[in-house]
């Protein structure tokens, strides 16, 4: 019998419905105050999350319309022997992965920034995806602080890559609400790990 694990409060900071105990464990074991329970039906798992008053981004609001907001995990990678960088993104809506993407970049100046350029490219791809699907808000989950700090202008932009990224994000913020949430890389966050794996796969497939 299939099981659905409702994680109302876990490491990712967003409500999740997972389909394996291993994925659930990664979210809740070692996390103080975790709220979770297993169910035989997905609908019951969703009701459990709503019962705990958690909607998009774990808000304490009782508003259950989480479809207007989106969570996207981004990561970048670099391989010196291929002299190239890549990105991976994992799109999560209402606790479920609804889309993934990966790709490589070839800008010579961007290559000098190694995996950071992949993170930047992934963040831009994430925002474009959310806008293309008509979402009103998107939360970008990242493990490199520049993704937030360059976008908001709290870090100096010393090259065309970071300057272009800042302009891009500032313009997109006029179209969609963008939230930034930092996660610790390689810490067992399942979606961050998925984004990292996708970025690596993109480079491995490069001829």
From TrEMBL:
Keywords annotated in UniProt: Endonuclease, Hydrolase, Metal-binding, Nuclease
UniProt entry tagged with the keyword Hydrolase: yes
Family the entry assigns: Belongs to the RNase H family.
PANTHER family: RIBONUCLEASE H1
A biological process from GO: DNA replication, removal of RNA primer
Annotated CDD domains: RNase_HI_bacteria_like
InterPro entries linked to this entry: Ribosomal_bL9/RNase_H1_N, RNase_H, RNase_H1_N, RNase_H1_N_sf, RNaseH-like_sf, RNaseH_domain, RNaseH_sf
Coiled-coil blocks: none
Catalysed reaction equations from the record: Endonucleolytic cleavage to 5'-phosphomonoester
PROSITE patterns assigned: RNASE_H_1
Enzyme class, broadest EC rank: hydrolase
UniProt-listed Enzyme Commission number(s): 3.1.26.4
Domain RNase H type-1, residue spans: 66-204
Keyword NAD recorded: no
Domain of life: Bacteria
Protein name: ribonuclease H
Pfam family, one: Cauli_VI
GO MF term set: metal ion binding; nucleic acid binding; RNA-DNA hybrid ribonuclease activity
GO cellular component, one term: cytoplasm
């Amino acid at each position: 019998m299939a099981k659905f694990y409702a994680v109302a409060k876990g490491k990712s900071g967003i409500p999740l419905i997972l389909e394996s105990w291993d994925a659930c464990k990664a979210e809740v074991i070692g996390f103080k105050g975790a709220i979770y329970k297993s169910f035989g039906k997905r609908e019951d798992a969703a009701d459990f999350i709503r019962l705990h008053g958690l909607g998009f981004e774990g808000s304490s609001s009782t508003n259950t319309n989480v479809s207007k907001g989106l969570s996207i995990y981004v990561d970048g990678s670099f391989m010196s022997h291929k002299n190239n960088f890549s990105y991976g993104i994992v799109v999560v809506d209402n606790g479920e992965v609804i889309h993934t993407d990966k790709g490589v970049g070839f800008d010579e100046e961007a290559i000098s920034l190694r995996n950071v350029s992949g993170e930047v490219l992934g963040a831009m791809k994430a925002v474009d995806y959310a806008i293309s699907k008509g979402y009103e808000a998107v939360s970008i989950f990242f493990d490199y602080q520049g993704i937030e700090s360059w976008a908001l202008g709290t870090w100096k932009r010393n090259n065309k890559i970071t300057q272009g990224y800042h302009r891009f994000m500032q313009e997109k913020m006029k179209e969609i609400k963008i939230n930034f949430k930092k996660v610790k890389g390689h810490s067992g966050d399942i979606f961050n790990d998925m984004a990292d794996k996708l970025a690596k796969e993109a480079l491995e497939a490069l001829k």
